[in-house]
Structures are given as C-alpha cells and as structure tokens.
Amino acid sequence: MCSPLLSHVAAVMAAAAVFAVGSPASAFPTNLPPGSPPFPNPWAAFQNLSGCHMGEQRQGLAGLKDYLSHFGYLPPPPSSSPFTDAFDHDLESAIATYQQNFGLNATGVLDTSTVEQMVSPRCGVADVMNGTSTMARRTRSSRGGRHLYAYFPGGPTWPPFRRDLKYAITATSATSIDRSTLSDVFARAFSRWAAATNLKFSETSSESDADITIGFYSGAHGDGEPFDGPLGTLAHAFSPTDGRFHLDAAEAWVAGAGDDDVSRSLSSTGAVDLESVAVHEIGHLLGLGHSSVPEAIMYPTIRTGTRKVELEEDDVQGIQSLYGSNPNFTPTSPATSSREMDSGGAGEGGRRPDGVFVGVAVAAVGLLLAP
Ligand SMILES: [Zn+2]
Ligand SMILES: [Zn+2]
C-alpha cells in the first residue's frame, strides 16, 4: 500500500522533473576549475533568486515552485499548465508558510536566509501533506506548553501486535560502504528509538521476513521519488506500515564505528553522516512527520559535516505518544546534543581532519577525492 505521503508526492514529482538531475556517480567531474562551487547542489540556482518578491517575473521561479510543490507548500500544477516564472500570491503565501515552519521571518519575500535554508540538504519527505502543515508552527509560546513534533496525516503507526520489528538491508550494490559497517550504523540508529520506547528492532537477512527494508538507490528507482545526486534530497522513508527506507547512493556518506572516528571524516566537503540521516528516517518509518524544532532529529534539514544522532526532547515526546515509553529510558543531557550540533558549516571551513582514522568508510563519489 502506498502511504498518503507517497500518493501525494508521486503526483507532484510527475511535474517536478526539474529535480531529476541525478547523473550517475561516475559522471561527476573529477577536476573542477578554480572558483567553481565546491560541490554540486541540485538547488544551487535558487541562490540567483535571492531578494525576489511579489509581482516580479524572474527566470527560475518555476523551478522554485516545483521545489515548494514537492515539499507540499504548493499544490502540483495541472499537467496542461506547468508553473511559470511569475511571483504570484500563491508563491508568496507558500514562502511565508515555509518561513514559519523553519523559524524564519514570515514575510513571503525570498530573502537571503530563506534561500539559504531552501538549498540546504534535506529529507525528501514533504513538510505539508494534504494541504496541512505537519510541522507545527513555531511561536514564542509553543516551546513552553505545546509539542512541536508531528504525525503523518491520519496518524498511522505500527499496530500493538507488531512491537518487535525486523529490518533488512536489501540494496547495497550502489554504495561502497561495507556490509558490516552498514549493519553497525543501522543497529545504532534503531537503538536510539528503541531506548525511548517499548519497540524492539533486529536485523534479518531475509527480505520477505522484514517489516522494514533499507536500500541505496541512484536517480529514479521506481517509487516516483527520484534521487537528485549529491546534496539536495538525501533520503526518504514511508509512513507505517509501508517500511521502505531509501538513501541516495550519490551522497558522500560517512559511516563509522562511533562519534569520534565519524567526526574526523565529516570535514570532507559535502560529507553527510549516514547514522544521523538514518535516525531521522527511522522516525518517519515509525510514524513521525517533520518537527520545526531545529535541534530535533525530525527537523527536515541537516548541515553537511554535522553529526546529530541523539533524540531531542521533542522527538522523545513524539515517539512516546505513539508507542509508550521505555521505563529504563534516560534522556540525553542537552549538553551532549548541542556538542553534536555545533560542528561544521556548509561543509566548508569545518573541522580539519586531525589524523589518520581507521574503520571509517567514506562513500566517495569521485568528486570527493578530487585534488
Ligand atoms: Zn524527513
Ligand atoms: Zn525511494
């Protein structure tokens, strides 16, 4: 069965071919001329739209509308009339909703900080589904008394008789990360959620026996949600009880044995921490939507070079409201979470590698290793 998310997004993606720039990894240039952007980003052209506002006509706005439509902020255009480059009222209000969700000034103007947020690598799951924002609005009072986590429309969960979930790593031919490292990374990612709830997770080698399947794919891979090459969309997962979790094989994934060795290799340009993305996508597999708390695992974007694997209070409240709490659960201290959040900028100017590391797999895509 398709999730509500997929049926919505699949329709959108039919019109959003502009995102499908996913060239095969081997096609990336290995020597970029000086002054070129350090890493390809499918959304980089949005930077030319900075400052755009209501009433303007600017080349590239149609592509921005496709982006906003993909993430649920605009309905898909009728097939007879694709999006135009006109900055109309619908676009203004879509941008204002986006700005509210991400804690930006909700002016409806495409200011620099909004564009910067939009080009950040992110999860492919929509923020707005069936016209309703799944990300609670961020207001001054909301952190105090009200939760900010969200569910998928209809609140789908794994039923009470399925609390012991099996996952299978089924598609690994498109990644260079070795199998045992993948097993370790996903086991740690699942354990974050198991610790907070009464859910249990175990890996199985049998796909037919699995509730959840995990795989790496390039470009179009049969679910109407094509991946887009390095950065842009990193991964997506489906709501319960679909169980599919897909990762973009073209990302410069970093995967290792733990916090320290992963942190060292995250300073590579464009590097994305696999475990951080896995913890986020598992939240979707269990029924959580996106949160507008920037520190939450379920926040839609993640900066390159960043490791973010601890559940935040908002994530814990969200998952416990769906599945109950684990009596032995001890929340992580806020100090640990903020330490993990403060590394790296947009992949450049971050920490320097401070030595040789062992046991870390960097799923390089050619460009990463360019001199
Ligand atoms: Zn997501
Ligand atoms: Zn997919």
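^ zinc ion complex. Residues 123, 125, 280, 284, 290, 300 surround zinc ion (ligand 1) (CB under 6 Å). The two ends are 46 Å apart (CA to CA).
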